[in-house]
Protein 1
Amino acid sequence: MDIANEIKKNTNEIFEKISRVIPEIEWNFHAPFIHKINKLKKEKNAIILAHNYQTPEIYHGIADLAADSLALAVEASKTKADIIVMCGVHFMAETAKLMSPQKKILLPDMMAGCSLSSSITGKEVRLLKEKYPGVPVVSYVNTSADVKAETDVCCTSANAVKVVESLGVKKVIFLPDEYLAKYVASQTKVEIISWKGTCIVHEKFTANEINEVKKNNPGIKIIAHPECPPDVIKASDFTGSTTGMINYVNKNQPKKVMMVTECSMSDNVEVENPNVQFIKPCNLCPHMKKITLPKILECLEKESNEIIIPNNQMLKARNSVERMIKIGR
Ligand code: 13P
Ligand code: SF4
């Protein structure tokens, strides 16, 4: 079989699935990469983990698991693969390394960062602990290993309230997302001391924008990520992690929905929900969008961009993630 036919044979099923969101002209560029990556990952016993914000050709074309940050951390702790390619951002790859220190963890673009993660350093957490002695630190996984090493327990948007309440204390330091902290504070009696970090994607949404969409689309369901500002969450019908948002659509099959989050989410979920109409005002995450098929192929071929965590951070940072995984969703 010539190579063009081999590519077609091995990728046609994927194209049929995602042709609603990817035009054929674009697909002709993606297909050879998808074919090569899927072949190579088998040869190398590699697994590809992708965050829900990855583009449809990655999410539906090559990912062994596409999920929210919590599920990615759990999968990284139990996979039998030798190599994990993290299609997501740097803190996700670091978290995978913490959970699988013996494995090779690769990130296709080392510059794929996160505004939340870069909003705070380990040193700043130490200063906060001095200011509030004895108050436990809960950090969002969207932080560096340096910050996780100063943290008692991590959380994600899927379990933040549960993690905070699991500590059985009156007050916690909750880092670094100011809006997630406000959301958690609205759901619990525990006093929350917050930081000033924000997600550059979710902070841009406004209640005015949501109310305008509601006015123009009677009956629409608005589902928002908890990294959004409080008035946006208030104007929404449901709030949850990216996987929580996907589950909401899968289960409720609303006629019309708007996912108040990163752009690729709606494309990815639309593929599996042909009866739901998606209204798509969205904001792009420039970090997530740094991950592309050519970069994934190159990093898997060369086994480049390996994540290394300094020994002095490894054990402490790992403990804070392990503690979170034990608490669960
Ligand atoms: P979750 O997938 O955990 O909801 O996280 C959203 C996010 O912004 C990750 O960068
Ligand atoms: Fe960070 Fe926001 Fe991008 Fe997620 S969407 S990686 S929280 S900047």
Protein 2
Amino acid sequence: MKYFFYLFSAVVLLAAFVSCKGNKDASGPIAVVPNPVSVEYGGRGVKIPSGATMPRLYESVDKKLATEEYILDTRRGRVKIRGGSDTAVFWGRQTLLQIIAQVREQGGNWIPGVLIHDKPAFAYRGAHLDCCRHFFTVDEVKEFIDMIALHKINVFHWHLTEDQGWRAEIKQYPRLTEVGSVRAETLVGHYGSKEYDGTPYGGFYTQDEMRDVVAYAAERFVTVIPEIEMPGHASAALASYPELGCRGADYPYKVQTTWGIFPEVFCAGNPETVTFLEKVFDEICDIFPSEYIHIGGDEAPREEWEKCPKCQALMKEKGFTREAELQSYLVTTIEQYLAGKGRKIIGWDEILDGGVSQSATVMSWRGAKGGIAAAKMGNDVVMTPNIYFYLDYYQTSDPQGNEEPLAIGGCLPLRKCYSFDPFDQLDDSEKTHIKGIQANIWTEYIATFDKVQHMALPRLAALAEVAWSNGNRTEYDDFVDRIVRSLLPIYDERGYNYAPYAFKDIE
Ligand code: ACM
Ligand code: ZN
């Protein structure tokens, strides 16, 4: 009988080790965002040594796994992360951070025994930050990169030029930053307001600073894609070099002080425009090693081209019948130039206007329709539809009641971000052209980095989960529960400012 008792006790103990009851601290299953491909419970887990933030890691690269695929194993008393590359191992570490955060949140020090397997649905998982409407310091930009890396987002799309400020030092064109980086004042309140603050506003990144950001991002397996806008959103460039605009060298172009779309665009008919852009892209390519270079292309009104003798002469010479073909001419000229440097262009969906080459990648922002059309034409696509992924939109349907800070408009609750279907209306071969998805943060109404975080979090988590777990997403409530348990403790610990009302279930 005594022996039977011992045997019984041993079996109970063993069962506790091998089952999820080995999970001594976390209550219930562990929560991870994005939702992994699989999570199996078992084994005794791993103790976090007292005084340490995490246990020792045993990391290795396994060439049988895909580049971003990893396996995290905590079943046998140590943490092992195997990945298809160093990048994959790094993503595994982000998952571990989430598990540790929820263990700590419950006052524990024991990582439950789990075997987690994950790989992303999309290779391109982007987050964009407009550093032109408002300027963010290098340290803030680095913190943004930390934020996106935590969510296993691997592209930082850095919006560097705009009507309201040119932010990238270009040595061959020093006036871009001497003149173009400063606006005389800034609109107060929402578009339509007549009030200005009377205070000059500026800032730019030196080439060394941009290189530093690229290196910082690379350490976190994030690629920085720079965006240089053309042919529109060019007021700051034209204020610096007015001879590049259709109105000519004597026209007093200015760095804009309000928001919107402006008629001042680069003169397509002036060969100097192409020379300028090529030299700018020479320096940009020296700083940014990314395969993709973003050439903008959005919101370029054509009325100046209609009136400009140089643009009209070029149209005649080329046999163009529509001004849209001038846009296409500029885009393809720069695309070929960048191809000579081994780079590919990506541009907003307006680059489809007037025709686009097969090799251009289209960033679909005016809804998904541009991306759907592009994928059906055989072009690669990054989906960033405004109604799902413009994080400058309000987060609830009752911004006033929820005391949301001023936003551009719209209504984009977390649930809506989470509901995006990247493959809507596409057949299997067309789906292969969807390279990924991205969230955009335009900053007309976001003057501080604190507010960037407020708009980004937790909605970036939805972007991340669609990008990693498409086809393997959970019910929305489960997603929210996982954010609350795995990410909020990290946001709190790092001091990230997230939107408190984001979980209110308001459409
Ligand atoms: C854009 O939002 N203008 C791309
Ligand atoms: Zn012109």
